[in-house]
Task: structure prediction
Amino acid sequence: MHLINSNFMISVTNSWFFANLLSNQLEQPNLKDFVRSDDNSFDLVLIESFLQEYTVALGHKFSAPVVNLSPSMVWVSASKWLHLPAIFSYVPDCCIGITDDMSFVDRLKNTIVGLMEMVVEDYLYIPMMKTKMSKHFAYTGWQSRPTLEQMLNNVSLTLMNAHHAVGVCRPYLPGVIEVGGMHIKEPKPLPKDLQDYIDSASHGVIFFSFGSIINLSNLPKEKLNSFLNVISRLKQKVIMKWVPDKSIKLPHNVKVGSWLPQNDILAHSNVKLFITHGGLHSIEEAVYYGKPVIGIPFFADQRSNMKVVEKNGYGKLITYNELTEESFGNAVEEVITNPTFKDKSMIQSQVYRDQPMKPLDRAVYWIEYVIRNDGAKYLKSDSIGLNTAQYFLFDITLFLFLLTVIIAWLVYCGTVKISSKCITN
Result:
């Protein structure tokens, strides 16, 4: 039994790498000048604290409330800074590839990983962020700055890139607002070559994109050939976000491009399937436009995102290790030919779209709300003052355990004493 899978360990390693990479950007002269300058003032500071928690110091610098953008379903360790209940029994960590429908082993894994994250967060990660904050945020008045933990606890509002139609249902406090799909805009007209290509596909089009980070050319040859061999046998046309080497012979039914308007392509009614790496923005767009999905996740939250897709019945997950020509071909055939996937994707789309206001409008409303109400401090719970032992009632549990032991011991001693008297008499 693998309590901690490689996907989680890779995610932790990548997080450490990207945290250092992001902090290196603070060496840019324009950013250094901005931090040190006393010429600016702001009513509110909007940050994305993920892997760069030190940016919360800008709220102190400008004496302004802070609104945090969370790019994904949060890790368990980050829950305390967002004041979210960390409930291991049904709130899964977003990087271990499980949903809220957990078996005993899943709950055990989720608990162990969550507790490990908390230890790493408190004793390794936050101290690293403090060091970076001290190095890069030496502005006028920084000497009176609260601790990093105090500033994170004082964030007025968090805008969460999440929605129950594409993620899991979980409890939130008033200071956390779901705005998943905020990036989705009304589709624009496609370039003429793409429009004609999609319109002319009598059997429909498959859109294939692994986002901005994964380059298909860097995959092992056997993995790449698995894709191309299956695609060459399809009746559908395929649009791929990819710039192949000149030595690669593309199938006759493939059109490639280095950049493609993903949102506008997915909005087209003749697109029958979306093949993706499982990034959250991509899943949100697929759900919004009612497209079935095949996902091959690589790292971070992608596997968990695709697990939710599978659970809700509008797509298939193929792990990288399981990716072969046969597994990929079977998945494409099943999703294309089985109408259940399309039906469930349309149901999910209806759920996603049925909101009282658009996510972007909701985000704007709450940002302005924080400004109007002087930081809206009352949106936070008093749980921010609890340490880990108090939050999880470890102290109460220990007290009750010791009390039970003491009472049991007294009862035992009393019983022995009474028994001794009876025997003596």
Summary: The mean pLDDT is 90. Strands lie at 45-47, 66-70, 157-160, 176-178, 205-209, 237-241, 254-257, 271-276, 293-295, 315-317.
